[in-house]
């Protein structure tokens, strides 16, 4: 990766890549084809506390930003996004890339495993992300969504269709980008007691347990009852698979199976992942959410797979950008215009309205 390029204007950057954790940002920066110095004439808005990384992926100029260390949730994500738009008014496409908890249901065709990639995709009733803490009970005892979040820009949805068609014929480039990342950044492949590294963590360390099985205290699951382990068909490779569907977003960290399954039942959607920031971003402007799966949102979760999952999500984002024409990005409405145009949520379930 070359560096020290300086573009003539901050307006040359039309794609924002938002991470939450430092490990997610590290993976994002490792995917850059070229790193840039801050562009000439960039003036940070007085309200903007973000610190940016500038660079290029393919034909796209990218700005990378993360939340403040130790800060999570929809509100923090919304603040980061609003600060970004205050300083960078020509951002048109936003990717939210990081880690999430997988909702694995292998018996129902959702064989999601650690290190796999989940991508938010509209299904006709949601924009790809459902805010699970925006649900109300009706008088008849049924649950009803109070609102749905807007789908990603059309240019990204067209890219999703194209990359899915390509993957029907050819293998994903994600494994190649992961290998390239480790070759360029040898430290990312090293492991220690405090750092599991950004390489695959081994099939033996990916165990899915029945919802009724609580984790036996300890750094791993060696003490957990193997009789409660869900038996899954072995895969031919350790390369991550890619899943498209609804991502559940909210401010609560889901880390026990009972809570996980109750939320999924209440949402009433075919959710495949939990995360904590997307709803805050999509309340402000539409984005695509990409998550590497680091746990199963149950009591067995640990930090072991977080770095590798950060890398798989980032590698998919890089591959997806190859299918996003730069010329069409420039024809996409600026994110700030979307925000100012008055999009707002709900009023009626399964309907999104504007006040234009």
Automatic annotation (TrEMBL):
It comes from the Eukaryota. One of its GO terms (molecular function) is catalytic activity. SUPFAM superfamilies: Purine and uridine phosphorylases. Signal peptide: none annotated. Gene3D superfamilies: Nucleoside phosphorylase domain (3.40.50.1580). InterPro entries: NLR-like, Nucleoside_phosphorylase_sf. One of its GO terms (biological process) is nucleoside metabolic process. This is Nucleoside phosphorylase domain-containing protein.
